[in-house]
Amino acid sequence: MATPVSQMLTANRLRDGDVLYWKAGGWVLTLPEGEVFDDPKAADAALAAAAAFVQGNEVVAPYLFDVRVDARGIHPVKEREIIRAAGPSVRSDLGKQAAHV
Amino acid sequence: MYRYDEFDAAMVADRVAQFRYQVERRLKGELTEDEFKPLRLKNGLYLQLHAYMLRIAIPYGTLSTRQVRMLAHIARKYDRGYGHFTTRQNLQFHWPKLVDVPDILADLASVEMHCIQTSGNCIRNVTADQFAGAVAGDRGSQRRIQRDPLTGDVCLSWHNDGVLGVAEIIPHHDSRA
């Protein structure tokens, strides 16, 4: 049986463009640290709360995206979010993935 | 190689000051992202998957050693030590911080460089075969720049279907900026 789809909330930081993930009313820098929403209403509520950070000129364009969670961790459904979470696919020494090189 | 006269230098300096003010207003919240986006794009600044990206114009694809050294300086000081030369012979930095971009533009202006019109529907460096449409045996080349009669936008593609032609069909990728 396929793993059910959950959601996470992401945005880019205004000052430097870095990728951010929502966690408990704030932002963290990596996908594994981020908050996973199994309930669509909770995800929508987080997205609404993120508007305050847009108004506060801290982040740009927050949005929800689909993930699957299993014993190995959190996996974005779409390739775009896999790449955003890791870094450039042609340079494993850059981006967030560089911390693991 | 293109060399600035006093009018070019003054115009580019004005644009650097103008963008510095626009960035200040964006960071203070006096401009929304929707208001700021067309302003940053006019200065070659995109917000992409991982970070901002700044595209620098290199007219004719030619650089002096002074300019190359400045690009290396910018890569080391403001980015991650590298840049990416594009198919249209420009240069992109992929990790600049928004707060640093006005200083980067000022450094570029000091060596007669800028990022003006490196985004959007405008004329870029031509990267087609120089003999396309000019030699016998090249059939039916279209050597023209088309302008949209409604929007005034310049078509980015310079099509060539000739035997000798090597066309660069340029996607309208600026829509994802």
Describe this structure in words.
The complex is a heterodimer of chains A (101) and B (177). Chain A is an alpha+beta fold. Chain A has one domain. Chain A has helices spanning 40-55, 79-86, and strands spanning 5-13, 19-23, 26-28, 59-70, 73-76. Chain A has a five-stranded antiparallel sheet. Chain A is flat. The model of chain A has no long low-confidence stretch (mean pLDDT 94). Chain B has helices spanning 6-27, 33-41, 65-78, 101-109, and strands at 45-47, 52-56, 84-85, 91-93. Chain B has a four-stranded antiparallel sheet with strand order 1-2-4-3. The model of chain B is unreliable at 140-144 and 158-176 (pLDDT under 50). The interface between A and B is medium-sized, with 20 and 17 residues.
List keywords for this structure.
A: 101 residues, five-stranded antiparallel beta sheet, 5 strands, B: 177 residues, alpha+beta, Sulfite Reductase Hemoprotein, domain 2, four-stranded antiparallel beta sheet, 4 helices, globular, disordered C terminus
Task: Give the structure's gist in a few sentences.
The complex is a heterodimer of chains A (101) and B (177). Chain A has 101 residues and is an alpha+beta fold.
What is the H-and-E element order of chain B?
Answer: HHEEHEEH
CATH class membership of the largest domain in chain B: Alpha Beta
What is the radius of gyration of chain B?
A: 18 Å
Low-confidence stretches of chain B: 140-144, 158-176
How many domains of chain B? The number is 2
The number of distinct helices of chain B, counting runs of at least 4 residues, comes to: 4
Helices and strands of chain A, in order, run as EEEHEEH
Number of domains of chain A: 1
Shape of chain B: globular
Major sheet characteristics of chain B? 4 strands, antiparallel
Ends distance of chain B: 30 Å
Largest interface: A-B, 20 and 17 residues
**Helices and strands of chain A: which structural class?**
alpha+beta
What portion of residues of chain A belong to β-strands? 25-35%
